[in-house]
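Hi V.,

You were right to ask for the full record rather than a summary. Here it is.
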Amino acid sequence: DLLGVEYRPLTARMKTEGFKKSRRKKHNKESSRRQRVKEKKNDKKSDRLGGSSLNYELEKSKTPWLCSLKTAGFRGRHRCGVTLLSGPPKETILVSAAHCNEFCKDQDTGQIVEICCCRDRSLPESCLNATSYCGTRPLLTRAEPKDIQIVCGEYSLEEVPEEFTPEEERVLKVEKIIVHPNYQNIDPLGGFDIAVYKVSNPEILLDAIETKAISPACLPRFNNNEYLSNQGRLTGWRDPEPTFRSAEPSLDNYVNSNLVPVQKVYTVQECGDPPYMNSNTFYPPGTVCSVDLSFRSCVTFGNSGSPLLREFNDRDGNKRFAFVGPLTLSKGCDRTIIKNIKSNRYNASIPVYEFRSRNPAVFTDALCYLDFIAESYNLLPPEGWTKPDYCTGQGIGDPEDKDKEFCMTNRGTMCNFTADWPECRLQEQIIQNL
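Predicted structure:
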């Protein structure tokens, strides 16, 4: 049982016989296509000039449940992580954060444009005055199924035709996006930041699940004592550094630094700000907080929706990974340092950051939303599950503790919001151009 805890179906037939004949035909057609691609891959192996140093077999074994939410098409851009919780022959269940489905679109053409186009023109992070690609009426709006795709079995975001890569990637066609009804647009601090997806071609996952190239994560454990420790694993892609500002010396370096998932060990802890900040910012109910106790990493753009997983032993004593929830928000990389300043191929000075944080990363607690996930697929919650009391509380902290000019640093000094550092001005220019 890949799920660990079985869903009880509302209907009596939710197993292999639930696949309709039309889906079987689709699956056979897709299997034939994939076989042709596989043959081409084998033919290409002998005539490659070179290959990436990325170890695909190792990457595959690390994160078989991790998928990428992308804009549609071969060159679709990665936006967020998605977790596979179940796949064929059972229901295909895919979970991410609700805010991942908010896109900036030109209202006249429906074309997706850069998110900075939807920021107020007066703000430094807006690009309305700096680019010709914002369209005429950019507006932040909810994505439609045709705007996105979900790719599973992918371990590098590099744009490579399937015949050239050993990845067992499967491109899922989204037919419905279901955002939690209580989620308020553009406001993860309001909680309920969770969404699920229905796809029209789940049968393409079947052979990859049978070979374990793709495997669902287990459901959250009902009892926290079932976990082996308070540590969890966060795995996700980052938003790739644009090549024009990269100072990486080689393509391999760039791929490994920007295009493959990063794994971090995070420790689950009570939500709250670092003591030295003297602040009490708000953490919504139904969330889980965790932090890298080395304070040498930080969640960043592209990590949204990516899963936190914790280890437990199944009935047979085998170690499994249970889904804790998708990344919903970050309170900032408060201990970030500039490691170096390098030059890119345009001879521009590029600050190299090491993103660090003592602020916790905040995840939507999937245990609080198993009813929402189940109902979205016409299923019942797992047997024995009841919603924990903390899921419907008031949250932690003060919702009004925000946008203040007074704060403390980890060195015991006052924050300086008026500092004029050339590195910060350069970063602001780069953000505008993005």
